[in-house]
Amino acid sequence: MIRRPPRCTLDRSSAASDVYKGQKLDVALRLVDGKYRSKVVDNSPAELAQLLHWLQKHEVVALHICMEATGTYWEAAAEYLADTGFVVSVVNPAQIKAYGTAGMVRTKTDKVDARLIADFCLTQQPAAWQPPSPALRELRALVARRDALVQMRTQESNRLLVARAAVQDGIQAHLDYLEKAIATIEATLRQKIDDDPGLKGQRQLLDSIPGLGEKTIPVLLSYFGGPQRFGQAKAAAAFAGLDPRHHESGTSVRGKPRLSKIGHAALRKALYMPAMVAITKTAWGRAFCKRLAAAGKPPMLIIGAMMRKLVHVVYGVLKSRKPFDPSLHSA
Q: Which of 101, 125, 163, 224 is the most exposed place for a label (fewest CB within 10 A)?
């Protein structure tokens, strides 16, 4: 009889009182005899170190860790545990929900969810997650911070339009600070890419694609840059949630195709304006739009299709290490 290594699951949840102070990990360790051991730790490096000590107490040698990709809270824990040497799998929450529904799980608690993920890990054997390089981790953090600052700037600009005179100076001072902070972080982004020869070369390749600019390229590099992560372009598109979702059954149900949106929203957000530019400003993009419009496709579907097309183009350029060639996409 083959003895399988224990399965450990990390289920991120937050206390209702304070999401920052109460952020925690619900851990379920599934032993080889089918029994469970549970533990709750804070999602912090110090607490994760205690988690490793707890695993050692249970004499865990080989371990397959599985966790849900919930927001960004999972990233630090996944990177820490993967760097420690464990096999880590990161799965979409929709998969866990469907697995629980299929198993007729009727209870919804953090402890039950953690054990459900452990069972999923044992039976489904999800693929191992590949942690990004330190350079890509920093790049992704800088991109996320820039987006947060831009969002704050938009919010403050909207407030300034309707603010009373008593608070206008304070809002304007905050806007001035945000402008400087955004300029600083964009300069840091450029320098970070310049300091990495591999990322610098990939930026030059992506810069050859019409519609991609200094705002979009760092986002694409933070997810698709570095060593090749995906075996096919359609896998890269699915990672961004840009794969088509069809809803058909029998002869009566014929739902309209839609984007699955089961993927990174940040990538979809970053690709929207480049898709619009490609459709309206480039010959190959206009030909692509015209072909889909002639087939009866609605405008929003065409935009989504162009976003997916751009991911395919990005994948092809990075894989071939050759600049964008519009003649390959003019048919």
A: 101
